[in-house]
Amino acid sequence: MPQTTKQNTINTWNVLSVKEPWASAIKEGRFKFIETRSWETNFRGELYIHASKGKPTKQVQTDHKEIFDLLQDTDFDYGCIIAKCKLVDCVYMTEEFIEEVKKNPKEYVSGFYEVGRYAWILEDIEILETPIPAKGWLGIWKPKD
User: Fold this and answer.
1) Mean of pLDDT values over 45-65
2) Most CB within 10 Å of its CB: which of 9, 44, 59, 108?
3) For residue 92, what pLDDT is reported?
4) In this structure, is residue 107 part of a structural domain?
5) Rounded Cα–Cα distance for residues 31 and 75 (Å)
6) Do 51 and 76 meet the contact criterion of CB atoms below 8 Å apart?
7) Which residues partner with 142 through β-bridges?
8) How far apart are CA 130 and CA 145, in angstroms?
């Protein structure tokens, strides 16, 4: 289970917005340690996870039932920064990489794995003691006070 962390100087944070339920899957720190993206980043270091404000449609809930089932007792904090982690690597997805991830079915259902996409490797996940409301942005962004 991830540790909790207190708020520090928020305008220095590097934040990534992630849609629910994937943001909470990261926050829970039990099975999602890879965030899948269509774009590469050279950033490494402390990264905060923001749960996007938009709620999943019924179609998304149906299409991704496995991850919703894994998080059935989890409260979603839409529109809030909810966790801190370390981004330690960004891996170009190959068929071999994807086959390796498939050995961990919970991780595999928690992302969009396709050759040519990128796997952001996360470690040291901590839940924020109090979710922090924030407007999300595309890319890695810094919140305003």
Assistant:
1) 95
2) 108
3) 98
4) yes
5) 17
6) yes
7) none
8) 16
Q: What is the CATH number of the domain that holds 111?
A: 2.30.130.30
Contact 3, 90 (CB under 8 A): no
Regarding predicted confidence, which is higher, 51 or 6?
51
For every residue of 88-119, DSSP letters joined together read EEEEE--HHHHHHHTTSHHHHHTS---TTSEE
Q: Tokens 């050995």: give the residue.
A: 103
**pLDDT grade for 6, boundaries at 50, 70 and 90:** very low
Answer whether residue 71 is part of any domain.
yes
Retrieve residue 72's tokens.
Answer: 């059935």
pLDDT tens-place string over residues 83-114: 999 999 999 999 999 999 999 999 999 999 99
**Angle 118-76-93 (CA atoms, 0-180°, nearest 5)?**
10
* pLDDT > 90: percent of the chain: 86
Question: Which structural domain range is residue 34 located in?
Answer: 3-130
